[in-house]
Specification:
Strand content of chain B: 5-15%
Largest sheet of chain B: 7 strands, mixed
Strand content of chain A: 5-15%
Oligomer: heterodimer
Number of strands of chain B: 13
Chain lengths: 434, 410
């Protein structure tokens, strides 16, 4: 509802305004409504849906067999301990976060005896979740990648990728964001050749955003053989790898294996960034426990880069919040806790594998067209079904099953109560919609 | 060849360097008056009793989960935090034109506000809109606005070093000469670093000019409750501007008044002309949050929300805050009394006239250096001291040191 300016164009008090019957422009009058976040809208539609069998498969959190998020008893116990610990200090943490946390997060990805760590050329920064890590990495690159020239991209993202990624780089001032082909709908897997083709065409010093494991949103990863080929290309073309590792351990149930591509690059002496999250592996989503790893070529640059990272953090959020990071650090520094936690992650993975296998089997029994091997070849939280936009819409509107528009879904949201219905619905979608 | 090979060392932040030097000083009498946090009379950080209580409540509550908060944050936190700033019965709240974004501390709130303003205020992506910060101000103000893309960040006159008080004429003069639509960052109370706030009458004069010249009001409220011991008193300026019909932002921090420094609890309160404008602003804020930290952290906000929304806990919190403010007031009175008793040259009324955590002593850089080197008393080069660093045990030593410094060093 447009409002008109009063004669002196001034901003009057509310009472004056009413009394004089004058209305005034808002200074925000030209701010348009932002397009709703697609995820928010999808969830809102699901909540309004009254159908009894409705299933939401587009969430970002790991759900257990009961369809709930949860933390393990171990985590619960540790939170209690922390809460009653009189030695803990309510002080500002450093801008780069809790040292014990960054140390353990770094070791988890690279392995304790990684040369880069031993040679003191690794910087770890605690961040506000994985988003915070990507944002900080983007800001660092924007400001400091190639001091001599003005670097403003390009940054290459996989197609598809998490829908907030492009915006994060743009917000950091990097406008030149491009895509490399990644998911092949027909093959239902990674189109490695096309990916390499696209990257061969990229200019030198491009930053390539890569999923270390459990690619979001497709769940499809490169094989180790292909990682070797890719890293050779990156070295040859002088690309800078920016890894995403939001769920280490949740792909193969093996922390080393899930971080293997990062370790490979580090072992080749490459510089890299790696954005990590502990949301899924600890069930601590709200606490926003993230980490940005930076591997440098020379230890002589470490302090300078750290000082610049601190400076960036101060302009973003000043310091991270400690609660969740304390829990993670406590678990990772205690061998017994560490083992118990890893076992917990493994059982999450086992459940995910079981769901995938049962879904594939059910689709096979229903005579569902196409191959569904990709379901069990993929790993982690997400899975790309290969359903097209119309089929996804069919699932939503006619079967009340909510997937991402790109046909990807959260595997953990499938359980013994809804598996049959989901499988039947997918079958129906494939056989009645083209 | 490292791509980061030529990255220069960033200039160290003065207050952190000061803390480091303090740590390494072996003098048993050393005093740290540069610290930016509350300390008890034992020189220790203080977990507020109400905070301990609420933490236990949260940990014991099995119905609470660890899921992502909504992008804009915990609703009950946002609304109760805004009420703290604007008053429970604020007409703006009743008219549904107040909204908020839960942020990472006061810094996060400033950041979100700055990012929004750069994108949508005074045109689209107008990086040339001047941003005015007080001279002096909290040094991070500059960095936050610069990082959000603003190219023109200027000081407005504020502290009169000779008078040791507010340079009202200078302040009003800068308001008059600022280009229209310029953004002004105002300290809601307990100005950092000077401890000098405008009086009510002076605030009214500021508001009159800002209204006439269509300047944007961006309050930074990091010390509500901490300054006078009374939440409502400390919010007078913010609330006055609301009654004057301003649309504005108020960046709130709960770090100091809840002692939750490390949980990063902040809130950006938005006052718009009406709910329609508010809605559109919030929709854009969501987009900005999504590409910065995606969702804010849950623990601190939950704690604050439970406290503010539970009458007994709210009362207890207000008591806790008052006790912190009272200790500061006591130290101010003691320091001034001791300096007067020592007949230290100069006037020292400003120590008790200033308000909040900080005091601009008026010591010059040479005197500050003397204090640090000869007396192991650490304060900022500007002469700023944190009153919380004073205790009944060290105040005599500090007073004597100031006396000796002023007498021997000019």
């Amino acid at each position: 509802m447009r409002q008109t300016c009063n004669s002196d164009g001034g901003v009057g008090s509310t009472e004056n305004v009413k009394a004089r019957g004058i209305t005034i422009f808002s200074i925000f009058v030209d701010t348009p409504t932002a397009a709703p976040n697609p995820e928010t809208k999808l969830l809102a539609d699901f909540k309004k849906d009254t159908h009894l069998s409705k299933v939401y498969l587009a969430g970002r959190e790991y759900l257990n067999e009961e369809g709930q998020t949860s933390v393990s008893p171990l985590i619960g116990k540790i939170m209690q301990q922390i809460c009653t610990d009189p030695t803990l200090c309510p002080e500002y943490p450093s801008s780069v976060g809790l040292p014990e946390f960054t140390r353990r997060a770094t070791e988890l990805v690279l392995g304790r005896d990684c040369h880069a760590i031993v040679e003191n050329r690794v910087l770890g920064v605690q961040t506000v979740g994985c988003t915070g890590a990507v944002r900080l990495g983007a800001e660092l690159l924007k400001h400091w990648y190639n001091v001599r020239g003005v670097w403003c991209g390009p940054v290459y993202l996989s197609s598809p990728c998490d829908d907030s990624l492009a915006g994060i780089f743009e917000a950091a001032g990097i406008q030149d964001v491009r895509r490399y082909r990644y998911w092949d709908t027909e093959q239902r897997g990674v189109c490695v050749q096309k990916m390499m083709e696209d990257l061969e065409m990229a200019p030198e010093q491009s930053v390539i955003v890569l999923s270390a494991s459990a690619h979001c949103p497709t769940g499809s990863d490169l094989s180790q053989k292909h990682w070797r080929l890719l890293t050779q290309l990156m070295v040859r073309c002088r690309f800078f790898p920016f890894f995403l590792l939001p769920a280490q351990g949740l792909c193969h149930g093996d922390f080393e294996q899930d971080a293997w591509p990062v370790r490979l690059c580090a072992s080749l002496g490459m510089e890299l960034l790696c954005a990590q999250s502990f949301s899924h592996s600890f069930g601590l989503y709200g606490e926003r426990v993230g980490h940005l790893l930076c591997v440098l070529k020379q230890s002589s640059t470490l302090l300078a880069v750290q000082s610049q990272a601190e400076k960036q953090v101060r302009a973003l959020w000043s310091r991270p919040s400690v609660g969740g990071a304390r829990v993670v650090a406590t678990v990772l520094s205690n061998p017994a806790h560490h083992v118990e936690w890893q076992e917990g992650v493994k059982s999450m993975v086992e459940r995910g594998i079981l769901v995938r296998e049962r879904l594939r089997e059910k689709l096979r029994l229903l005579g569902c067209p196409g191959s569904w091997d990709h379901l069990i070849q993929q790993g982690g939280l997400y899975c790309c079904t290969g359903l097209n936009v119309q089929q996804v819409e069919f699932l939503e509107k006619r079967r009340h099953i909510y997937l991402h528009p790109n046909g990807c879904l959260n595997v953990s949201a499938i359980n013994s109560r809804n598996l049959d219905y989901v499988a039947e619905s997918i079958h129906l979608a494939l056989t009645s919609v083209f | 060849m490292s791509l980061f090979g030529e990255v220069p060392q960033a200039t160290p932040v003065a207050v952190f360097k000061l803390s480091n030097d303090f740590k390494e000083d072996a003098n048993p009498k050393k005093v740290n008056l540069g610290v930016g946090a509350y300390r008890t009379d034992e020189g220790q950080p203080w977990v507020l009793p109400v905070v301990k209580k609420v933490e236990k409540i949260i940990v014991a509550d099995n119905s609470l989960n660890h899921e992502y908060l909504a992008i804009l944050g915990l609703p009950e936190f946002r609304s109760s935090a805004s009420k703290i700033a604007l008053g429970e019965d604020s007409p703006a709240i009743q008219e549904n034109r107040v909204g908020a974004v839960q942020c990472l501390g006061g810094t996060g709130a400033l950041k979100m506000g700055a990012e929004f303003l750069r994108r949508w205020y005074n045109g689209n992506d107008n990086t040339k809109t001047p941003v005015y910060v007080s001279a002096p101000t909290w040094e991070n103000h500059n960095a936050v606005f610069a990082n959000a893309g603003f190219e023109d960040i200027r000081p407005y006159k504020y502290w009169d070093a000779e008078k040791r008080g507010l340079d009202l004429d200078g302040f009003l003069g800068d308001l008059e000469s600022a280009p229209k639509h310029s953004i002004f960052v105002l300290h809601a109370c307990a100005h950092n670093p000077t401890g000098t706030d405008p009086t009510h009458v002076e605030w009214m004069q500021v508001a009159e000019v800002m209204k006439r010249r269509k300047l944007f009001v961006f309050f930074d409220s990091a010390y509500q409750g901490f300054a006078s011991g009374c939440l409502d008193k400390d919010a007078w300026a913010v609330r006055y501007f609301v009654t004057q019909g301003f649309e504005m932002f108020c960046a709130q921090s709960f770090s100091k008044n809840f002692g939750l420094y490390n949980e990063r609890v902040g809130n950006l309160t938005i006052v718009a002309r009406d709910s329609d404008n508010l809605k559109r602003v919030l929709s854009q804020m969501e987009k900005i949050v999504r590409v910065t930290w995606s969702n804010p952290p849950s623990q601190g906000a939950r704690l604050v929300a439970i406290t503010l929304n539970t009458p007994e806990l709210f009362a207890e919190w207000k008591d806790n805050v008052k006790s912190m403010a009272d200790r500061v007031l006591l130290m101010r009175a003691s320091l001034q009394a001791k300096l007067q008793a020592l007949e230290t040259p100069g006037t020292w009324d400003h120590i008790t006239q200033q308000i909040g955590m900080f005091s601009f002593t008026g010591l010059n850089p040479k005197q500050v250096e003397y204090m640090i080197k000869e007396r192991s008393i650490y304060l900022m080069a500007s002469g700023r001291i944190n009153m919380c660093g004073l205790t009944t045990k060290n105040i005599d030593y500090v007073a004597e040191s100031i006396h000796e410094t002023v007498v021997n060093v000019q």
